[in-house]
């Protein structure tokens, strides 16, 4: 009998039943060793062992935040002070939806008011059963017992992705059989299972055979080190551009409105500059423009094109860049007339951009964008379309299939003509925008001091992970749930 089997049988021989944890504590064996001994002894009818399924519940990052209060609770408490509120002024759509579902509010026209049940929910002594269930689960209580007590609440918490419920199979009810007792009586070790220093130095290994290794015996699951899927995908995208002969460039995340908007022909009264679309900073509040000549040329461009007052103070506003085309703008200015450069000059960047978006399955407040420009002479849309087709073909798109991939005309302030590429998501039955592109306007290249033609594009990368990882929403990428990160599907390109 193997030494692991012998230790296990000796431990359980005088006990009615044991579980794996008790055997681990009592024998000093590792989990792998115990599981191997259980599997092999069960095959020889030396022990009885049953499989038990237990529920394991984990709170997500969002779930942990809700321990202090659910959005619907915060909403009704706020309404209890104001009495009523306009729907347009309520920013928390989740709280609004669940308060309505719970019957805590009524919506009449454009106004939200507390119902009788909502008034009760707003009281200090009100105990929200969903939060009670979440707290008990967060303390590591018996998940099965909690589910019996809060079945509907746990289903709702799971649906809201505040908890993750998994079933874990464990071995329990381990007891010795008559056959096992006979094996113990023989007390014969059938081979060496693990070579130790003593076995080697004493020469005992010469007198005994080595136990055959059972590769089918159960063992603990192991997880190899992996990159975060977003980092893995960005690295792949970077490799594609480099293989296509592009040079990588980068620029600041904190930018001035001058480089983010004004240089790119966006009028100062354009809606995208408003607070609902752009994150403006309070520190620093302004970023000065050092190049007075460039400043003057951009000013003339705006006044002649838009025939409106152009204010330098607005151009100096500090913000989080809303697109990485601002990086392209810097490099257009830097290299468009560089006599040392060999044209066409092909540059790309990859980085985070920030927009004050309403969160849904395909929108986040921050996203990863790749931008690129080609600076040269006699360039046209055919060159641009060929470049974009080559890029997306390298990412696994069938760019010649009109039912999956297409280009269509589109408007962007800094290009003329402009176009965008889209792909068809079969699962969502929706065309998803991939990239906005075009030829940089002559007004811009003139202001930047060049007569070169510049092809440009900007593409969000996050949405491409829908098809690569088979996920339902972009928020999945940033929850940092260790279970999902360990077991996620491989990128399929």
Q: What gross morphology would you assign?
A: flat
CATH homology-level superfamily of the domain at 230-253 and 321-487: Bira Bifunctional Protein, Domain 2
CATH architecture of the domain at 230-253 and 321-487: 2-Layer Sandwich
For the CA atoms, what is the radius of gyration?
Answer: 32 Å
Structural category: alpha+beta
Q: Please list the strands of the largest sheet in the order they lie side by side.
A: 6-9-10-14-13-12-11
Query: How many distinct beta strands?
Result: 14
**Percentage of residues assigned to helices:** 25-40%
- For the record, give the distance between the C-alpha atoms at the N and C termini, rounded to a whole number: 51 Å
Low-confidence stretches: none
CATH fold topology of the domain at 230-253 and 321-487 = BirA Bifunctional Protein, domain 2
The major sheet is characterized as: 7 strands, mixed
Strand content: 15-25%
Give the C-level CATH assignment of the domain at 230-253 and 321-487. Answer: Alpha Beta
């Amino acid at each position: 009998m193997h030494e692991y089997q012998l230790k296990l049988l000796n431990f359980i021989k005088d006990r009615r039943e044991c579980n794996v944890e008790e055997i681990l504590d009592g024998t000093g064996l590792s989990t792998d060793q115990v599981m191997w001994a259980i599997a092999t002894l069960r095959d020889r009818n030396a022990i009885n062992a049953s499989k038990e399924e237990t529920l394991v519940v984990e709170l997500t990052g969002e779930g942990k935040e809700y321990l202090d209060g659910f959005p619907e609770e915060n909403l009704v408490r706020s309404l209890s002070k104001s009495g009523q509120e306009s729907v347009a002024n309520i920013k928390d759509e989740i709280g609004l939806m669940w308060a309505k579902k719970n019957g805590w509010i009524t919506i009449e026209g454009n106004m939200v008011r507390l119902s009788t049940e909502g008034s009760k929910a707003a009281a200090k002594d009100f105990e929200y059963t969903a939060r009670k269930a979440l707290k008990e689960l967060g303390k590591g209580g018996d998940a099965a017992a909690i589910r019996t007590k809060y079945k509907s609440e746990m289903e709702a918490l799971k649906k809201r992705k505040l908890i993750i419920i998994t079933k874990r199979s464990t071995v329990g009810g381990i007891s010795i059989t008559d056959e096992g007792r006979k094996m113990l009586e023989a007390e014969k070790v059938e081979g060496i299972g693990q070579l130790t220093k003593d076995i080697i130095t004493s020469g005992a290994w010469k007198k005994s055979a080595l136990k055959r290794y059972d590769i089918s015996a159960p063992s603990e699951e192991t997880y190899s080190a992996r990159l975060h899927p977003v980092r893995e995908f960005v690295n792949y995208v970077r490799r594609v551009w480099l293989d296509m002969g592009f040079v990588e460039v980068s620029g600041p995340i904190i930018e001035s409105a001058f480089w983010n908007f004004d240089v790119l022909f966006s009028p100062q009264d354009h809606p995208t500059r408003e607070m609902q679309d752009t994150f403006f900073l309070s520190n620093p509040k302004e970023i000065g423009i050092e190049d007075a000549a460039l400043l003057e040329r951009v000013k003339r461009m705006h006044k002649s094109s838009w025939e409106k007052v152009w204010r330098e103070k607005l151009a100096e506003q500090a913000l989080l860049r809303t697109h990485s085309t601002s990086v392209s703008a810097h490099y257009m200015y830097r290299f468009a007339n560089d006599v040392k450069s060999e044209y066409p000059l092909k540059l790309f960047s990859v980085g985070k951009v920030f927009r004050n978006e309403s969160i849904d399955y395909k929108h986040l407040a921050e996203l990863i964008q790749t931008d690129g420009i080609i600076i040269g002479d006699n360039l046209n849309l055919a060159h641009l379309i060929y470049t974009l087709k080559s890029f997306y073909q390298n990412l696994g798109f069938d760019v010649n299939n009109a039912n999956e991939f297409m280009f269509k005309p589109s408007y962007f302030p800094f290009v003329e003509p402009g176009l965008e590429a889209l792909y068809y998501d079969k699962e969502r039955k929706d065309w998803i925008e991939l990239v906005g592109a075009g030829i940089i306007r002559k007004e811009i290249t003139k202001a930047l001091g060049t007569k070169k033609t510049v092809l440009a594009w900007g593409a969000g990368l996050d949405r491409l992970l829908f098809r690569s990882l088979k996920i339902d929403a972009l928020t999945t990428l940033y929850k940092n749930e260790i279970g999902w990160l360990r077991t996620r599907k491989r990128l399929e390109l």
